[in-house]
Amino acid sequence: MAQKMLLVFVSVIMGLFSYARLNQTFNLMPVPALVKVNAGRVGISGQFRVAVTGKPNSRMYSEASRFVRRLSNKTGIFLDMQGYVTSNDTDTTSTLLINIQRPGLLKLGEDESYTLETHTGKIRITAVTDLGAIHGLETLLQLVSADAAGYYFPGVSIRDNPRFAWRGLLLDVALHFMPVDVVKRTLDGMAAVKMNVLHLHLCNDQGFRVESKLFPRLQQVASDGIFYTQQEINTIVNYAAQRGIRVVPEFVVPAHTTAILTAYPEFASVERDYKLQRYFGVFDPVMDPANEKVYPFLEKLFTEMSSLFPDDYFHIGGDENTGKDWAAVPHIKAFMKVHGMKTTMDLQTYFNQRLLPIIKKTGKKMIGWDEVLQPGLPKEITIQSWRGNEAFYSSVRKGYKAILSYGYYIDLIQPASYHYLNDPIPDSVKLTEIQKNFILGGEATMWSELVTPVTVDSRIWPRTAAIAERLWSPKTVHNVYDMYRRLDIVSLQLESLGLQHLSYKQVLMRRLCNGYNTKPLEVLVSVLEPLKIYERNEGDTMYTVFSPFTKLADIASPDQEVPRIFNEQVEAFLINPSTISEKEIRDKLILWHENNVAFKLLLINSPALSEASLLSENLSALAAAGLEALQYIHDKKTADTEWLKQKIAIATSAKQQGGRCEIQVVNAIQKLVERVTILSKF
């Protein structure tokens, strides 16, 4: 244990030293490929002007104008709204000069590089395409600094380009629908951290979410009346394109098609009464690959849907087919026998082979989840890996282009550090250069079983910014300490864009407390996180699409700052008490111990909070144990065996979940208790 604590302490100290020595990450996220600091400084005043030169397009002018508005909001400086963005190639008076060679194309592999130079009085952003220049503007906004003299840009020289071409976020709008304004603010957040692919998961067992003019029953009976009109899809695509982001649609087949089969049951493998699924999970309904009428239907539907999305890629899903409906139907079993198929996965490969020419006919490239990777699958299909690294590296070794999502499932409530250290090409995996080139990049996935438009931001941000850095920045950028330092700052920057990952908590707490006094709940929630992986939706009461998502587990957010910092402080304190203020630890323990009295008063007017009652009691008892342990350590006194047994029992009890949440400071406080035991041995 002592060795482990020493390693943690060394890691923290090295993190501090690394930041102090290099100090070139500033508050930037993602960290650029190369940053050099100079002695220059560019002050920000009401005379700030922008000149766009070279061969700009309307997108570049619009983004330059948006940059100035955001700069004004960030600094509170009144910037002249007339003529602050010009196109004069001979301009020598503008503060910011942007030069691009050509408009960028929204396609995989387009040049997104840029250079940014700030010297005394002048800033220059130079890029091959406007996409690179837009990234440069985001970097420049993150560089805004302040001191007694006012706001300014520090002197830097930046050369930057992405490590991977595909830096995506899947937003599931099928399980829980996300209105257009939620999608827009998500796109704003993505652009701020240089992500460039929005993957929209548009249909599932719970609903089909896009208007079809050819097959109107899809929105009439298969959506609960909640869907995007084609005009709204156009709005989303244009909004994304303005920010340099591609939109890739996913229409999952042949499984997860209960919604489609509710509208058109004639395409199902099994004849039954189909209704929209209200629960979440993996279900048996699946389209019938032996029915020749299925393929003209999909060709018409996919042709219509692909026309709404100009991107080159079209995702067909292909995941989580149980095969049970196929195995249960005589005509499908006979079909498999005639075609020499031994397993239902052979049949799915056949289905995918029939889909490929349909997708190609629309001018698109086909993507599927890694279940589609079966013998005989054409190499033209891109694999998106979610079940494990083995499938991912197997696909690139076999010559398939691939996108990594395994390790980036942000809906599973894992910490940013976990995602951050999940590199698509780790040193432990040996690949040839050709195989490495098959790795397009990665994609965070926001599945919406357990989120609503109110809470979705808190599950995406700010952790996804860490994934964005992993996919953009050099592989050598992996200092977790510095990542968290910058992530806390970037979180506030994301909030300024309108994202609600911070502000939503107060809304839900006031609702849950049935009033304005939320402080006791706030103290408790600050050390809680929802159950991770899929544990939250296990137990006697399963979530449905109509369940309340306004409870304790919805208020608690992933990777909480308070327990993360407390746990680091305890680790450092136990290694060397002189490095960390004992008072800081003690003050937190006192706060948590005393909070239970005030929390109990909230229960009088808010029965909904009763699910948190045991958590509050356990936190209070746990904090009291920590205070006793801290005093023993301070006094260098020992405790008897009975004391230890009692305190360990308290810690064990505090590990129980309540309200589908867990206390995140249990292990740290238990270590304080165990340290007393170590002292008693000497």
Supply the number of helical segments. Answer: 25
Helix content estimate: 40-55%
Separation of the first and last Cα atoms: 16 Å
Tell me the fraction of residues in β-strands, as a range. Answer: 15-25%
User: Roughly how many Å is the radius of gyration?
Assistant: 27 Å
Q: Quick one: how many beta strands?
A: 20
User: Could you give a short account of the major beta sheet?
Assistant: 8 strands, mixed
Category by helix and strand content: alpha/beta
Low-pLDDT parts are 1-22
Average residue-wise pLDDT: 94
| Shape, per Cα inertia axes | globular
Note the topology.
Elements: H1 2-22, E1 34-43, E2 50-54, H2 58-75, E3 85-86, E4 96-102, E5 114-119, E6 122-129, H3 130-143, E7 145-147, E8 150-160, E9 166-172, H4 180-192, E10 197-201, E11 203-204, E12 207-208, H5 217-220, H6 230-242, E13 246-253, H7 258-263, H8 294-306, E14 313-317, H9 324-328, H10 330-338, H11 344-361, E15 365-369, E16 382-385, H12 389-397, E17 402-404, H13 416-420, H14 433-437, E18 439-446, H15 456-460, H16 463-472, H17 480-495, H18 504-513, H19 519-525, E19 528-530, H20 552-555, H21 561-575, H22 582-602, H23 613-635, H24 641-654, E20 661-663, H25 666-680
Parallel strand pairs: 2-3, 2-4, 4-6, 9-10, 9-18, 10-13, 13-14, 14-15, 15-16, 16-17, 17-18
Antiparallel strand pairs: 1-8, 5-6, 5-8, 7-8, 11-12, 19-20
Helix pairs in contact: 1-21, 2-3, 4-6, 8-11, 19-22, 21-25, 22-23, 23-24, 23-25, 24-25
